[in-house]
Design brief:
This protein is of the alpha+beta class and 139 residues long. Helices cover 21% and strands 32% of the residues. The longest helix is centred in the first third of the chain and has 16 residues.
Length: 139
C-alpha cells in the first residue's frame, strides 16, 4: 500500500504580508510553500536537518506558481503539499485554497535535487534514504 505522501497546513496571512493592492504580495507565496514543504518533510522525519545529517543537500532547482485568486489579509488559507515524484528528483505539488470557501487561490510545484555534501555532485537518482523515509520504492 502506497503511503500518504501529502500534508496540509493552515495559515492566516499577517498584515505585513499585504501589499498596496490590499492582497498578499506575490513573493510571500514562496514562503507559504516552504512552510508546507517543511511540515510535509517533517512528517517523514526528513526535514532539512535530517537531510543534512544524511549527507545530502536538496536545493530547489525549479519552482512554478499559478496565481488564481488573491489571498487576503485575515482570511485563513489551507496549503496542501504532496510528493508526486521521488525517483530522480523530489517534486512537490501544492494547492492553496481559501479555508472558508474552498476556492483555489494558487497552485504550484517545486523540484529539488539531491546533492552530495561530501562531493558537491548532483545525484541523478535520489538517494535510498529518501525512499526509506517516505516508505516508497523507486518507480
Amino acid at each position: 500500500m502506497k503511503p500518504e505522501l501529502h500534508h496540509e497546513i493552515e495559515l492566516t496571512p499577517p498584515f505585513h504580508d499585504i501589499d498596496l493592492m490590499e492582497v498578499v504580495w506575490h513573493g510571500h507565496y514562496v514562503k507559504y510553500l516552504e512552510l508546507a514543504r517543511c511540515a510535509l518533510l517533517a512528517k517523514f522525519d526528513y526535514d532539512y536537518p535530517q537531510m543534512l545529517a544524511s549527507g545530502f543537500a536538496w536545493p530547489v532547482v525549479d519552482m512554478r506558481l499559478k496565481y488564481v485568486q488573491p489571498a487576503l489579509y485575515g482570511k485563513t488559507l489551507k496549503i496542501r503539499a504532496e510528493i508526486t515524484e521521488w525517483e530522480n528528483r523530489l517534486r512537490i505539488d501544492y494547492l492553496i485554497r481559501d479555508a472558508a470557501t474552498g476556492r483555489k487561490v494558487n497552485q504550484a510545484h517545486t523540484i529539488q535535487v539531491a546533492v552530495s555534501l561530501a562531493t558537491k555532485e548532483l545525484q541523478y537518482v535520489c538517494p535510498p534514504v529518501l525512499w526509506q523515509r517516505l516508505g516508497v520504492k523507486p518507480e
